[in-house]
Amino acid sequence: MRLTQCFKFLKKNKGKKSTPYHLIRLEETDSTNRYLHDYHPAEGETMTVVVAKHQTAGKGCGSNVWESENGKNLLLSILVHPVMLPVAKQFLLSMAGALAVKDVLDKYTKDITLKWPNDVYWKDRKICGTLIETSLGGGRMKDCIFGIGLNVNQQTFISDAPNPVSLCQIIGHEVDLEQLLSALLDSFCSYYQMIEQGQYDAISGLYHLALYRAHGFYRFRDAQGEFEGSIIEVEDTGRMIMRDKQGMIREYMFKEIEFII
């Protein structure tokens, strides 16, 4: 699908909940992702969403934790069963989820980009972290849990995270969390429907248009040290392909390279 066709699809489906979901609300939990690991959906339940006001052990990528003031931000996880998606293309789920977050934030502010592999940025600051966890069955995709921690109304951050920012800090006033949640879930459903329909190239194309530091050379650090590189593409597997200043092609999976900001 060409990008112009993709934009028409999104416009046509704007405001529609294309995939029914079951919504679970929690006052507090250790982690919404962990909650869904232990959850057993009812027969016919194709999408489950759990949202919490507070997490005591919010998960980030790897061993990282997610700081969030009680009741101030959006903390949620989405469970889907993407059996139609080839295992080699599972990173498309991460692309789709990140694009859903960006689409909602774009209605409030400019300069929202998607930082590989799992962050959403405003300029050079992190406004949202995502975490995708997949499971296989019989060599095929079985379950996917997509976690979202979106900084919305928090005004002070006390952890040692280097560059957090909230939507409230950017636009100067608080935002209705319920409206934001509804818009985010509708957007996620639209992108997930694109995956169901096999529109992989369209999702990848939109992701690359939104990619953080997509053009030009920037400083990075890998196991061999610092270098200047330019992003060529992110494959559907999640592998990032780069070219350094000397013209050498470099390939990285998660946690193998660091952006120097």
List keywords for this structure.
seven-stranded mixed β-sheet, alpha+beta, single chain, 25% helix, 261 residues, five-stranded antiparallel β-sheet
Description:
- The strands form two sheets. The protein has a seven-stranded mixed beta sheet with strand order 1-2-3-7-6-5-4.
- It is an alpha+beta fold.
- Helix 3 (91-105) crosses helix 6 (200-209).
- Helices cover 25% and strands 31% of the residues.
- It contains six helices and twelve strands.
- It is globular.
- Mean pLDDT is 90; it is low at 1-17.
Number of strands: 12
Distance between the termini: 34 Å
Strand-residue proportion = 25-35%
- Secondary-structure element order, N to C: HEHEEHEEEEHHHEEEEE
Q: How helix-rich are the residues, as a percent range?
A: 25-40%
- Rg on CA atoms, Å: 18 Å
